[in-house]
Structures are given as structure tokens and as C-alpha cells.
Specification:
Blueprint lengths: L5 H10 L4 H21 L11 H9 L8 H13 L23 H11 L10 H17 L7 E5 L2 H16 L3 H4 L8 E6 L5 H9 L6 E4 L9 H13 L3 E7 L12 H11 L2 E6 L23 E4 L1 H4 L7 E5 L3 H7 L30 H11 L1 H24 L3 E3 L7 E6 L4 H13 L6 E5 L2 E7 L7 H24 L1
Parallel strand pairs: 2-3, 2-4, 4-5, 5-6
Antiparallel strand pairs: 1-7, 6-7, 8-9, 9-11, 10-11
Length: 488
């Protein structure tokens, strides 16, 4: 047996640890970085002027045999990483449903990293197990799910929807674990809308359902799934000898924010025995707002719901969530036995390895729990209402401009519009101008067959002045297009 002296043991520990002075230096530099970054956000370029040589050096230069130390590391972070990173927390970053992290999040992430809990079975992470359970229980309650409900924190909404369809497969075919899709049973069919997120197609492809068995149901004049067309498609597939098994509705589509009619869709699912999943990655957490809560009133009828705390709860990436009305459905899909992972069951704890595909899992729930504890739920309600107010203001400003026009209603915070008589290339040029001059980052959109622009307000830092600046600048660009076309 080898015995280490205290001196040798200390030196070994410091190979990958920090001594007291280095800990103090790292803490100081991290605090300075967080403070400096927060203060400078509005002045930072939205999209970096990428220093390709600097980034190429990250690939070309080998990792050193002797480390550069804490201060050297922070110099590289500040000199290379930060200047070549997109400023997603900028108040005029309006291109995607991607908000800034809340203020406590970086600190919570640091603590979670220090604790390094493996959130698979409870013995490795007892407090983390209860924290995740508390977050899942709170989220479930927002949608009216009862005591039998459960869920799991995921990497994002796409993974949550993939896990939901996996769970639905096991519920539909009890022998799916053993036989998979290698059977003579009828082909399974999934239904979603033409406005649905591509994660539905991706999940069907990954699970072997096949893209030929995904039906994209047409939408109405507000870009919501047409329930009559859904029912017609289900009946047609049944008549063709196929097996309809799941509908994915979207309360908050990624382009326009349209909210599919949950209650009538749930009626169809009940009538024909289909699993109903709600892809609420963008829209579901608007349930926190009194202004739009009624649109989510029937969510409890869904068998599963995907949502993203890294959107409207402003948690840093990654933090998605899958909720299920009956948590036993998760264990039927995901629980496997391994003798080396056996641990005594505890009514307080949850073994999350039995609720999803991962074994090793990070403590994602901690940053969500920490923010809810630090700020309180009302703070998030207020922030969400603020984004709704600004989206309404943006839509009103667009509607009032003679050279701009709305492409779709604005039920949530996505605002789609176009420059009148502009081509797709014109819209692309306008977006590029906004980025080049540092005004804003917006995205392209195609709505109802027409090209345009999409802005999505998902930042609690954004102000009315930011919105006015964007619209004023776009109105000026649109005016230039009009004058140029008149001259031509």
C-alpha cells in the first residue's frame, strides 16, 4: 500500500486545483468579467466582426504542456473568446427566441459546477433530485396537471419533443421496447401543422417513424392548425390501413407565435385515441401572464408538454423540460435495471435516469430553482408582460408606417412584417444594413408564401426606445427602396 506524505498529497492536489492565491485571483477576475460584460452589453456589436486568424489559432496552436495559469486564461477569454461571440443578451437582439440569462444564473451555474451532481439516481444527488422535482412539480401545476404528473429537465425543447414521441411510442405499442418497429403492425402516423417546428420531423426520422408518416396539417388565416383538416387526415389514414397515434400541436409557433386550438384538437385526440403532445418550447410559459393564460387553459388535456426555461425563465442554455400527465409513462419508456446502480427507493427522491434517455445528467434544475427563489415568480410574470407590451408596440408601429405592413397577427412576441413592394433580396439587404450599422439583429421570415422580416422580443432589457429605433431605421430604409424603385 502506497502512503503519500502530506506535502506530496498537497502538490498532487494542486496539479488540477487552485491554491488560495489563485482562487482569489480567479474569483476577482470572474467578478470583474461579469460586471464588465453586463455594463457593456448595449455598446457591444450584436454580431462580431469575426477575427478569423484569432479563431484559427485556437485550432492551430497545441494545448500547452505547461499551463498559462488563471490570469493567462482570462487574458485569452477577454482577448479572443468574448470579441468573437454573438451578443445574444443585447437589448436589440431580436432575431430568435433566445433571451439573456437572468442575473443570478452565472452564479448558480458556478455553484452547480462546483457541486458537480450527477442527476441520475438519487444517491449521487439527493438535494438535486428534490430540486428538480420541485421545479417539475411547479411547472406541471402551471398547466393544471395533477399529482400523477411528472417530468424531466432536458437540453431543450427539441429533445423534450423527441422524448415525448418516444414515450408515446411505448404507450401505443407496449412491446415496443422488445420488438421496436420491426413488426407487421400498421405504420404509425404523426400529425402536426405546416407551421410546426422542424423538431417534429427530426424526431420522426430519429425514431424510425419516417418522414412519409408525418402529416403537416394546413393552417387557418391566423396560422393555427385546422381541426377539420386534422380529422380528415386521420380518417383518411385509417381508411388506408395506417395507424394514427400522435398529434403534436403548437401553442406558440416558432415563426408567428400562433397558438393552435388546444381544446378542439384534444377532442379529436380523445375521439380517435391519439396521444396529444404540445410543443410549447416557445409559447408554453406565456401561461404565467394573465393576459394570455386563457389560451393555455386546456393544456392539462395534453398527454405531454415540451417547454423551455432557457427562454421565458431566462435560464442560461441548456434548460428544456418535458412534462407528462402520467409520470408512469416515462418509466415504462425509460426505466432499465442495472445491478451496479441499484439504490433503495425513497418517496422524497426521484431517479431521473428512469425518466429519460441519459444516465449522466447535469444539475440543470439548479439555475431555474435559484432564479425562482432569488427573484420570485412575480418577477418573471412582469418580465413576460414586458415582452408582450413591446411586441404589441412593435406591431402598432409597423402598422402605422406606410412603407411597412404586418404579415400575421401578433398573439405573443413574434412580429412578422414586410417592406411593401420589396423583394426577398431587398429584405435581406435591409437586415444586413441593420447588423452592419449596429442597429439590431432581426431575422428573415416567410409567412403565407410572402417573404419578410421577423422580430421576436425575448429580452427583459429591451425598451420602447429600442423598438422605436429599429422601426424608425427600417422605415427610412423602406423609404429609400421606394424612392429608388420610383426612379428606376
Amino acid at each position: 500500500m502506497i502512503h503519500l506524505t502530506a506535502e506530496v498529497a498537497m502538490r498532487t492536489d494542486l496539479v488540477l486545483g487552485l491554491d488560495e492565491d489563485d482562487r482569489a485571483t480567479a474569483g476577482r477576475l470572474l467578478t470583474e468579467f461579469l460586471d464588465s460584460y453586463e455594463r457593456s452589453l448595449s455598446d457591444r456589436p450584436l454580431v462580431p466582426d469575426v477575427d478569423r486568424a484569432a479563431l484559427a489559432s485556437l485550432l492551430e496552436n497545441p494545448f500547452p504542456d505547461k499551463g498559462i495559469g488563471v490570469e493567462g486564461l482570462f487574458r485569452e477569454i477577454n482577448g479572443t473568446i468574448v470579441p468573437n461571440s454573438t451578443a445574444v443578451a443585447h437589448p436589440r437582439f431580436l432575431a430568435y427566441v433566445l433571451g439573456p440569462p437572468n442575473g443570478i444564473a452565472p452564479h448558480a451555474e458556478a455553484i452547480a459546477a462546483a457541486l458537480n451532481q450527477n442527476c441520475n439516481f438519487w444517491q449521487l444527488s439527493p438535494a438535486a433530485s428534490v430540486v428538480e422535482r420541485a421545479v417539475v412539480t411547479w411547472l406541471s401545476g402551471l398547466f393544471g396537471y395533477g399529482e400523477e404528473a411528472g417530468g424531466i429537465l432536458t437540453g431543450g425543447g427539441s429533445i423534450a419533443t423527441l422524448n415525448a414521441l418516444t414515450t408515446a411510442l411505448h404507450a401505443r405499442r407496449p412491446d415496443f421496447r422488445r420488438r421496436g418497429l420491426q413488426t407487421s403492425d400498421p405504420q404509425l402516423v404523426v400529425y402536426t401543422s405546416t407551421e410546426a417546428h422542424r423538431c417534429v420531423d427530426k424526431a420522426a426520422a430519429i425514431l424510425g417513424i419516417g418522414l412519409d408518416n408525418v402529416r403537416h396539417i394546413p393552417t387557418d388565416d391566423q396560422y393555427r392548425m385546422r381541426v377539420d383538416a386534422l380529422e380528415e387526415a386521420i380518417l383518411a389514414d385509417r381508411a388506408a390501413g395506417l395507424e394514427p397515434f400522435c398529434v403534436v400541436a403548437t401553442p406558440g409557433t416558432v415563426t408567428t407565435g400562433s397558438i393552435d386550438p388546444i381544446d378542439p384538437i384534444a377532442d379529436v385526440c380523445t375521439r380517435y385515441g391519439l396521444w396529444l403532445h404540445l410543443d410549447g418550447a416557445y409559447g408554453a410559459l406565456f401561461v404565467l401572464s394573465d393576459r394570455v393564460r386563457d389560451a393555455f387553459e386546456s393544456a392539462a388535456r395534453a398527454d405531454s408538454i415540451a417547454l423551455d426555461p432557457h427562454k421565458l425563465l431566462f435560464a442560461p442554455l441548456e434548460a428544456g423540460c418535458l412534462l407528462v400527465r402520467d409520470r408512469a409513462d416515462l418509466t415504462r419508456a425509460y426505466a432499465f435495471h442495472s445491478s451496479y446502480l441499484t439504490v433503495e427507493e425513497d418517496d422524497l427522491m426521484v431517479d431521473y435516469m428512469d425518466h429519460g434517455p441519459q444516465l449522466s445528467r447535469s444539475f440543470r434544475a439548479f439555475k431555474v430553482w435559484s432564479a425562482l427563489r432569488a427573484f420570485g415568480v412575480d418577477a418573471f410574470r412582469s418580465a413576460i408582460d414586458h415582452t408582450l407590451d413591446l411586441a404589441r408596440h412593435l406591431a402598432d408601429r409597423v402598422a402605422a408606417e406606410p412603407d411597412l405592413e404586418l404579415l400575421a397577427p401578433t398573439p405573443l412576441t413574434a412580429v412578422c412584417f414586410r417592406i411593401r413592394n420589396a423583394t426577398e433580396a431587398d429584405h435581406g439587404a435591409a437586415l444586413a444594413t441593420l447588423v452592419a450599422e449596429g442597429t439590431a439583429l432581426l431575422g428573415p421570415a416567410r409567412v403565407g408564401g410572402r417573404h419578410g422580416i421577423r422580430a421576436c422580443v425575448t429580452n427583459y432589457r429591451t425598451t420602447r426606445a429600442d423598438i422605436d429605433l429599429v422601426v424608425d431605421r427600417l422605415a427610412a430604409i423602406a423609404g429609400d427602396f421606394r424612392l429608388r424603385s420610383t426612379v428606376d
